[in-house]
Amino acid sequence: MINNSLKTIILAAGESKRILSSKSKILHTVGGKMIINHVLDNVSKIISKQNINIVISPKLNKLKNEYKKISFSFQRKPLGTAHAVLSSKSFYSKSNQDILILYADNPFIDQKIIKEMLNLKKRNNSDIVLLAVNTNNKNEYGRIILNEQQKVKKIVEFKDATTDQKNISLCNSGIMLLKSEVLKKLITKIKSKNKKKEYYLTDIVELANINNFKVDYIEGDFLKTLGINTKQELAIAEEYYQNMLRQKFISGGVKLLDSKSIFFYFDTKIGNGVVIEPNVFFGPNVIIKDNVHIKAFSHIEGVKILNNAIIGPFARLRPGTTIGPNSHIGNFVEIKKTYIKKDSKINHLSYIGDSNIGKNVNIGAGVITCNYDGIKKNKTKIEDNVFVGSNVSLVAPIKLSKSSIIGAGSVITQSVKENALAVERNLQRTFPNYRKNRKKK
Predict the structure, then answer these.
(1) Element spanning 164, H or E
(2) Which pLDDT score is estimated for 135?
(3) What domains appear along the chain, each with residue ranges and CATH number?
């Protein structure tokens, strides 16, 4: 349910130096989805897009063209998180809505966490609510310092912390919920008195206490609050997300024979009674219906697989392909932009591209559709009950009509009529006693 009393500022202007990449960390993917899109998809479930503002550096200006209903602000110099929030002043200055501060590199902050923060604020009439994590995991998060009453006193950033403070397990995730009047009053009072000479948003907590505002916190799961700054953290996030997807599918009745070796995309859809063997990769836009069996080492993307089909092992199914019910796609078969109807078999060592294949078709080993003439891709149409022998080349455009048969080893360049047999091969010549005669020379 959308909360119209809430605005959010998503900080995305970081320089991404530690990710060691030519592109921003928020443009990297987890489960095939950009990190920034994970954040936006999660927050859009509770906050309308008109109430979302993303603070970016000028280097990410292209993002404005991709998210039409969301507003953007620019942080032109990297002077810290408080400076970044202040860069979006026009977004919140005339509003009385609460302000949620998120980070574009936190892909797993979901509506459940946000609702818990909102509930605590309402229950305690808090002016600021922090999302904390209590963990002994090695990290460089800021440490939350509590007073004798176990209330939040201040936050000390890791680089400015003493050795004793670094040993504190209560850490700041960076996620923060504030009353708008508190943000407006305190944000301009933050100074850059720290080792990095930056304006830290976390300093607003100490200022809030000085000004008698109430600061509370809730504790969240460390991995849920994971910020991605390095390739190592990206790998941790990927593993965490894959485990979530695997558990979702297992709970839905999918049998994963070695779950840790199977990679899913964020949009993979799988029906009931499906069996997936080890080392299978699912790319984008895959739909698998009920009782499908996918064997080991198959690579599948942009494909729809219908009920009771058997795929693999070592199959490669490429975008634009539909595999019909009860059809079999075997080992070392590559299929692209092809529609296959029910009960058809392509069991081994074939390439089928830009084709339409009917019901009960048998494609023998080593069959190739020659679909590219150097200028354009051409279509192959194979109607119902066709039998294609081994090592056949089908030179498109071509049509094999119903119940036709293609002899093994043929190069077929002309369409074949219904019920006809087409064979194209040179006449075999046999020389008796050739080996003996050869030795006598």
Answers:
(1) helix 163-166
(2) 87
(3) 6-219 (3.90.550.10), 231-422 (2.160.10.10)
Using alpha carbons only, how large is the chain's radius of gyration in Å?
A: 30
Instruction: Please return the burial class of 306, using the count of CB atoms within 10 Å of its CB with bins 0-12, 13-18 and 19+.
Output: buried
Report, as an integer, the average pLDDT of 157-168.
93
CA distance 183 to 322: 54
> What is the rounded CA–CA span in Å between residue 141 and residue 223?
13
pLDDT value at position 258? 97
* Nearest-angstrom CA–CA distance, 284 and 297: 17
CA distance 23 to 60: 10
pLDDT at 139 over 90: no
Output the pLDDT for position 68. Answer: 87
293 is known as an active-site residue: no
Sign of the C-alpha dihedral computed for residues 419, 425, 431 and 435 taken in this order: negative
107 token code pair:
């892909």
Q: Could you report the per-residue pLDDT of 346-361, keeping only the tens digit for each?
A: 999 999 999 999 999 9
Model confidence at 437: pLDDT above 80: no
pLDDT tens digits along 9-42: 999 999 999 999 999 999 999 999 999 999 999 9
Cβ proximity of 141 and 173 under 8 Å: yes
Considering 28, 38, 328, 348, which one is annotated as catalytic?
348
Report the C-alpha gap between 103 and 81 in whole angstroms.
Answer: 10
Does residue 179 register a pLDDT over 60?
yes
Pairing mode of beta strands 398-400, 380-382: parallel
**CB-based contacts of 381-385 (< 8 A; 24+ apart in sequence):** 381/355, 381/356, 382/355, 382/356, 382/357, 382/358, 383/358, 383/418, 384/341, 384/358, 384/359, 384/360, 385/358, 385/359, 385/360, 385/361
pTM above 0.85, yes or no: yes
SS3 sequence of 7-53? EEEEEECCCCCCCCCCCCHHHCEECCEEHHHHHHHHHCCCCCHHHEE
